[in-house]
Amino acid sequence: MNKIIASILLLSAIIVAQDTTEVDSTWQKEAIGSLSFSQAHFDNWAYGGENTIAYQFDLSVKLINNNDKYIWAHTGKIALGNSKIGDYDAKKTIDEIRLESLLTYLWKFQPDPYVSFKGETQIAPGYVYDDSDKKQVSAFLDPAYFTLSTGFIYNPMGDLSVRFGAAVKETITKDYPVPFADESGTVEIEKTKVESGVESVIAFSKKIGEGTLIKSTLDVFNNFNCFNATDVKWDTDIITQITKHINFKFNLKLFYDEDISTQRQLNQSLLLGISYTIL
């Protein structure tokens, strides 16, 4: 089944790519980075307190080729943050790498066919902490998620897009297969997991006023072998440009994957820092 779906996806990509070679168009480029930093130091301070250092870095990159026959969009996001309090080791507060290439062939009517490839992982090792020790549970490309999908995309308005199609999702690990790739109930520990199923993605992006942008993406995946188990990823950013180089960013991530945890996972971050438009 996986080989058949992968062949369909590859064939779709070849057909769309052949149709787009005749069009000469210009790439639109955008790269926005932001950095926040805080520090406090105490020396013989009678009122109490602990030395602290914290930082967070975000970079969003967009490269779009938009013309009459197709839209080819490459998007990327990198986020990394750490904090250190007193004599304790530094602990990361946010860590994410996400890349996606989405090729949409434009018909004279909607919905339009698309081919998409995306990958997700992290940069730094991840740990869980107790009162006296820490345990590493993840690392760079461990786990890493790669998804190839094809189907149809519908844009009822400029701010909203909905896409639906067949997908193959691969999870790869090295030293930390449990619980990301290993199948429970088997003797062998699997370090890779390939799932074929149905993907649906709802993406919303709207600028409010002169300086506020809301971006939200809901990604749902259903495995053909277990259709009642639904993987959900919901990622929302609210970005406000306070001044030319000072911005406010709120991020909320909700994640549910029954293979990893039967409970929903939540991650929230708040950033007030310096931003710079590179391109």
Describe the protein's architecture and organization.
The protein has 279 residues and is mainly beta. It has one domain (2-21, 50-277): Porin. The protein contains one helix and 14 strands. Strands 1-2-3-4-5-8-9-10-11-12-13-14 form a twelve-stranded antiparallel β-barrel. The radius of gyration is 21 Å and the shape is flat.
Summarize the structure.
The protein has 279 residues and is mainly β.
Q: Mean of residue pLDDT?
A: 86
What does the main sheet amount to?
12 strands, antiparallel, barrel
Distance between the termini: 43 Å
- Note the run of SSEs as H and E: HEEEEEEEEEEEEEE
Number of helices: 1
How would you describe the shape? flat
Strand composition percent: over 45%
CATH class bucket: Mainly Beta
CATH-derived architecture: Beta Barrel
Q: Please state the structural category.
A: mainly beta
Helix content: under 10%
Strands, total number: 14
How many individual domains? Answer: 1
Topology-level CATH name: Porin
Strand order of the largest sheet: 1-2-3-4-5-8-9-10-11-12-13-14
- State the low-pLDDT regions, or none: 1-11, 13-24
Task: Evaluate the radius of gyration.
Answer: 21 Å
List keywords for this structure.
Porin, 12-stranded antiparallel barrel, 14 strands, flat, 279 residues, mainly beta, disordered N terminus, single chain, two-stranded antiparallel sheet
